[in-house]
Input
Amino acid sequence: MVLVEYYTDGDITHVSLDEKHIGVIRSLAGFYKWVPGNVPAGLQIGPTMSLSKEDVIDLLDHCIPRQLAAIERGEQPDSNLLHPDLRPYRADLGFAEAVRHPLLYMFGAEPGKLEALINATYKHKRKLANAYLTEKKWRDYIAIHERPYRLFTFETISHKIDDNKQYWSLLSWIWTDSENIHECYTDWVSCFTSGRDNRNEMMTQEDQLALAAMPDTITIYRGVGHKNAIHGMSWTTDITRARWFAKRFSSNQKTKYIGTGEVLKKDVIAYFTTRNENEIVILPKDLKSLKIVKQKT
Output
């Protein structure tokens, strides 16, 4: 027996596998370079896995061996093995095919590969999502969706959130965890201007006090790699951080832009210090006295 660990909803779970199961994992390693072929104790089976112990055993006992056997027999992979809900979200990334569904981002979507694992993971996450929605566990429901879809998920349930404090707290969490702000600009504006009271609840007590201590007109900075990206919502009071972001987002690492402007304190949506970014969130229409400086390294 070998003790294997895997991830279930963020927690590490252990399951003991016998030699038959180990053989299946070795086969997977041979076909997909997915896990080490020697299967050491303490093997980690992908952080994308979100399955119960029963799901894992069923995959190793039935689903995956059937697929491996078909491949060994030289049978043509069936492109319809992927769950119907996921097929429209199959994406060719050039180096691999992946599923990019709101509930699941996962590689191995090429026909005849990891469909059994992908399908089982999706069905498990869908079951949890439905339970969270029924139980009104809004944060859990949003969190089980993949990061790029969390704002859209929030929008679909926001009308059900009666507590304004919870509304703004959830929106704050999604914002600080997002990496695709620019892709969802109109959605962010809509959420920020919802008309709900207590928008200051987006911030911690410490950040509220820090913002309150700032002057009525605040000088802010934004670093970007392309000039047309200067009119964004995320700014900082720290020019050093702006320079860091400019370098991060510069495609050629040579040309960068620093925007300097002013915003009235009363127009600031939120101020965040949690990531040491001194971030000021604004609506671009509220930016005053913008100056753009091109910097070269």
